[in-house]
Amino acid sequence: MTKYYELKELESKAPKLFGIPTGTKLDEMFFKVEEEDGKFVKKPLGGIPYLAVMNITGVPDTGKSVFAEQFTVTQAAHGYKVLFVTVESPANFLYTALKQKAQAMGVDFSKVEQNVVVIDASESDELRENTRALIDTMAYAIREKKCTNVVIDSVTGLYEHKEVLARQIVRQIFNFLKKWRQTAILISQKRSSQASESAEAAGGLAVAHIVDGTIVMDKKIIETRWDVNLYGLPIGSVLRTIRIDGCRLTGHDSRTWVFEITESGLIEIIAPLSEYIKKRGRLVEE
Question: Where is the KaiC domain (predicted)?
Answer without folding.
Answer: 31-283
